[in-house]
Amino acid sequence: MASSLMNAPSIVIKAGSYRRIPRFCGIALFCRQEMAKTWSVSLLPLEKVTEKQLQTLGVILWSWTLCRGCLTSGCCTTESCPSQRLKRLGRFFEHYKALTVSYEVDITPGDRPALGTHEDLFDIIKQLKLEPDIARAEFVDKAFKDDTCQRLPSLADRERAINLAVKVMTMVNCSAQRQSSGLLEYGLSQTPWRSDITFAQFIADIFPMTDHPSLNDDDLKRSMDVKAALMAKKLKKRVGLKLRPTDDLRRHLKLDRKSRGIEIYHHTAFLKEHLRLTKDQSHGVSVSDSLRL
């Protein structure tokens, strides 16, 4: 067995495009494939997603009310149905697929995975929206309890599942604790959600409400002039900035002075769905109440 593994050829797989995997990676993949044959748990449980599941994600994130056709036959026939905006949300859904396909079960036989289906992930998002005022430490236990008396998934797997749910909900890279300096060096910035902090407080901390005198000026013309001057095309042309797309909402307008690069959050359809959801809410609504919408 050891001899056959050492002589195993490189393996060609498809991940967006074909690429050749080094021999040692091929051995690891071979071992996982052999383990999967004798283990009922899927190693990549979120590898595939259907359009129906993407519709469900819209219902959970933005309280979509689907038309009768979507609910019965799966064929949308109403122009006002939010499913008509699925194509506009294509970039966000592609990002969702990239996030979820990377979730890999890393448990020992007999353990229960934190996520077995996309619906498991949706349940975590729903619970975060329903109970935004409990601390992460309490949520990490409560979210995975069931009535089957099975033992909880490993703590590391639960933490990963919650981080993934937060990424999908907020488009912010989240971690359970402060990241190592090595990750920072490679630009893999993550925002820590500490165990003693509630989800609502975490959101309030990473998106603080500020009153910018120039942007929120009572003088409408002055305010519009400032916003017009900040248009991406003008920044690129007049200041010579290099625009770089980012999937992390917190990194929007983050400037790298050395390279003159500025990051632009490019999931505008995602933001528009949130604006539709909150357009009828008063400006004084709390973070917790906003999350429950």
- Average predicted confidence as pLDDT: 80
Roughly what fraction of the amino acids lie in strands? 5-15%
Radius of gyration: 22 Å
Query: Which regions have little confidence, pLDDT < 50, spanning 5+ residues?
Result: 1-25, 179-187
Instruction: Decide which structural class fits the backbone.
Output: mainly alpha
Lateral arrangement of strands in the main beta sheet? 5-7-6
Helix content: 40-55%
Order of helices and strands: HEEHHHHHHHEHEHHHEEEHH
CA-based shape: globular
Report the major sheet.
Answer: 3 strands, mixed
Distance between the termini: 56 Å
If you had to describe this structure to a student in words, what would you say it looks like?
With 293 residues, the protein is mainly α. The protein is 45% helix and 9% strand. The chain has 14 helices and seven strands. It has helices at residues 2-6, 23-37, 51-62, 68-72, 90-101, 118-130, 136-142, 155-170, 181-185, 199-206, 220-229, 232-239, 268-278, 287-291; strands at 11-15, 17-21, 174-175, 191-192, 242-246, 255-256, 261-265. The strands form three sheets. A three-stranded mixed beta sheet has the order 5-7-6, with no helix packed on it. Helix 3 (51-62) runs parallel beside helix 6 (118-130) and helix 6 crosses helix 8 (155-170). The longest helix has 16 residues, at 155-170. Mean pLDDT is 80; it is low at 1-25 and 179-187.
